[in-house]
């Protein structure tokens, strides 16, 4: 069934349905066991493998590079659909799609060519950026040192989402002088240890735990010549979270509608002989669905701003890229509080349409709120309204980096 026929609105391009149809059978297979995997903590190794085999991980690459030439709005529309199946899987691939944008926008021709070839051949990349140690804001304790014509990595990372499922880890670190280093570390290199010790109550299957690097030898060609990320990186990574929230909202809306339709028990103080015919229950289901619809619409509108930033960067026009990137940051920041509120409300109020049996663990309805609440805790949304207000009042650009550390 197309997005339009399902009532979620048309996709972001004329060819979107054809593109999405390639992946929807995989999405359906992922969704079929998502609740059980969440309940029993089975990591989605197989599910990510299915997506790799279907070439979902090469979406942004040109066809001649093994991809589909997807625009950013098309990518984010597909991420909403994947999140509708299982938000854990989207989060596990977030770093991979971000690294792909890095490769597409890289200033080094050699780096860009090499990594687009690897990604086109099926390689995937996980996250190795965040730390929980004593490093100050803007600094890292993980160090890359020169040794015998190569490099050696030592350090410890946390929130390494997706790395357990990946071939490489995107590493942010420092050199001996405190300079920034960006590298791609093979997951199976000697000295790399990936541990699934993430114990959050939501997004539990993303393997967002610890990675340690102990004397890991690194070839020079795995060090990115320019450590800077692509210009619209902060907007991109945050919009992946918003697309994930929108997908959670859709899944919650569809589940509550199905369960109401199946429900045979009614309350004596209800309004109809069948729950499905009770206008108050219908209103609850309608509001959950409306919230999910609005969330998805906001995400896709923001994705258009990212596409403009990407297009400006491809022209090589620095001032145009700067302006387009600032506006993309503004649009995504404007979307954060709205999308978050819509989905948290939807994943809470859905229980008002059902009886006490809806809280049974086998249904897994609680995972929608738990996952949404966990995602909403990233890069705290409490700062976003202030950032947007400052832009509106003074024209101040949003910050380009969101980093955590000691003061």
TrEMBL record:
<dbReference type="InterPro" id="IPR013786">
    <property type="entry name" value="AcylCoA_DH/ox_N"/>
</dbReference>
<comment type="similarity">
    <text>Belongs to the HpaH/HsaA monooxygenase family.</text>
</comment>
<dbReference type="Pfam" id="PF02770">
    <property type="entry name" value="Acyl-CoA_dh_M"/>
</dbReference>
<feature type="domain" description="Acyl-CoA dehydrogenase/oxidase N-terminal">
    <location>
        <begin position="27"/>
        <end position="122"/>
    </location>
</feature>
<dbReference type="InterPro" id="IPR009100">
    <property type="entry name" value="AcylCoA_DH/oxidase_NM_dom_sf"/>
</dbReference>
<dbReference type="InterPro" id="IPR046373">
    <property type="entry name" value="Acyl-CoA_Oxase/DH_mid-dom_sf"/>
</dbReference>
<dbReference type="GO" id="GO:0003995">
    <property type="term" value="F:acyl-CoA dehydrogenase activity"/>
</dbReference>
<dbReference type="Pfam" id="PF08028">
    <property type="entry name" value="Acyl-CoA_dh_2"/>
</dbReference>
<feature type="domain" description="Acyl-CoA dehydrogenase C-terminal">
    <location>
        <begin position="240"/>
        <end position="378"/>
    </location>
</feature>
<dbReference type="InterPro" id="IPR037069">
    <property type="entry name" value="AcylCoA_DH/ox_N_sf"/>
</dbReference>
<feature type="domain" description="Acyl-CoA oxidase/dehydrogenase middle">
    <location>
        <begin position="135"/>
        <end position="216"/>
    </location>
</feature>
<dbReference type="GO" id="GO:0033539">
    <property type="term" value="P:fatty acid beta-oxidation using acyl-CoA dehydrogenase"/>
</dbReference>
<dbReference type="GO" id="GO:0050660">
    <property type="term" value="F:flavin adenine dinucleotide binding"/>
</dbReference>
<dbReference type="GO" id="GO:0005737">
    <property type="term" value="C:cytoplasm"/>
</dbReference>
<dbReference type="InterPro" id="IPR036250">
    <property type="entry name" value="AcylCo_DH-like_C"/>
</dbReference>
<keyword id="KW-0285">Flavoprotein</keyword>
<dbReference type="GO" id="GO:0016712">
    <property type="term" value="F:oxidoreductase activity, acting on paired donors, with incorporation or reduction of molecular oxygen, reduced flavin or flavoprotein as one donor, and incorporation of one atom of oxygen"/>
</dbReference>
<dbReference type="InterPro" id="IPR050741">
    <property type="entry name" value="Acyl-CoA_dehydrogenase"/>
</dbReference>
<keyword id="KW-0503">Monooxygenase</keyword>
<dbReference type="Pfam" id="PF02771">
    <property type="entry name" value="Acyl-CoA_dh_N"/>
</dbReference>
<dbReference type="InterPro" id="IPR013107">
    <property type="entry name" value="Acyl-CoA_DH_C"/>
</dbReference>
<protein>
    <submittedName>
        <fullName>Monooxygenase</fullName>
    </submittedName>
</protein>
<keyword id="KW-0560">Oxidoreductase</keyword>
<dbReference type="InterPro" id="IPR006091">
    <property type="entry name" value="Acyl-CoA_Oxase/DH_mid-dom"/>
</dbReference>
């Amino acid at each position: 069934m197309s997005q339009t026929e399902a009532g979620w609105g048309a996709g972001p391009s004329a060819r979107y349905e054809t593109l999405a149809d390639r992946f929807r059978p995989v999405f359906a297979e992922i969704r079929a066991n998502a609740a059980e995997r969440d309940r029993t903590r089975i990591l989605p190794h197989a599910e990510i493998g299915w997506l790799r085999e279907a070439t979902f991980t090469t979406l942004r690459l040109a066809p001649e590079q093994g991809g589909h030439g997807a625009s950013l709005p098309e990518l984010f529309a597909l991420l909403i659909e994947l999140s509708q199946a299982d938000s854990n899987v989207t989060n596990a691939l977030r770093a991979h799609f971000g690294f792909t944008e890095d490769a597409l926008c890289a200033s080094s021709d050699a780096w860009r060519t090499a990594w687009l070839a690897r990604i086109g051949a099926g390689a995937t990349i996980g996250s190795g950026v965040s730390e929980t140690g004593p490093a100050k804001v803007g600094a890292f304790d993980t160090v890359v040192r020169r040794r015998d014509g190569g490099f050696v990595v030592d350090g410890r990372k946390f929130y390494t989402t997706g790395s357990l499922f990946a071939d490489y880890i995107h590493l942010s670190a420092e050199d001996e002088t405190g300079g920034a280093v960006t590298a791609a570390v093979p997951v199976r290199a000697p000295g790399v240890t990936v541990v699934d010790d993430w114990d959050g109550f939501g997004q539990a299957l993303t393997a967002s735990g610890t990675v340690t690097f102990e004397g890991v030898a690194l070839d020079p060609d795995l060090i990115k010549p320019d450590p800077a990320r692509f210009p619209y990186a902060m907007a991109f990574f945050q919009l992946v979270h918003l697309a994930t929230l929108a997908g959670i909202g859709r899944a919650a809306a569809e589940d509550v509608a199905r369960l109401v339709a199946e429900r045979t028990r009614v309350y004596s103080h209800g309004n109809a002989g069948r729950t499905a015919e009770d206008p108050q229950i219908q209103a609850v289901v309608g509001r959950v669905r409306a919230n999910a619809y609005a969330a998805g619409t906001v995400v896709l509108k923001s994705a258009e701003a990212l596409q403009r930033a990407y297009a400006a960067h491809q022209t090589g026009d620095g001032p145009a890229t700067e302006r387009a990137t600032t506006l993309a940051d503004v649009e995504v920041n404007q979307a954060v509080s709205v999308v978050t509120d819509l989905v948290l409300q939807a994943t809470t109020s859905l229980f008002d349409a059902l009886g006490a049996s809806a809280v049974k663990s086998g249904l897994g309805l609680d995972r929608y709120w738990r996952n949404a609440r966990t995602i909403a805790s990233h890069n705290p949304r409490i700062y976003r309204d202030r950032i947007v207000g400052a832009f509106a009042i003074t024209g101040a650009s949003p910050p380009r980096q969101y980093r955590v550390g000691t003061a």
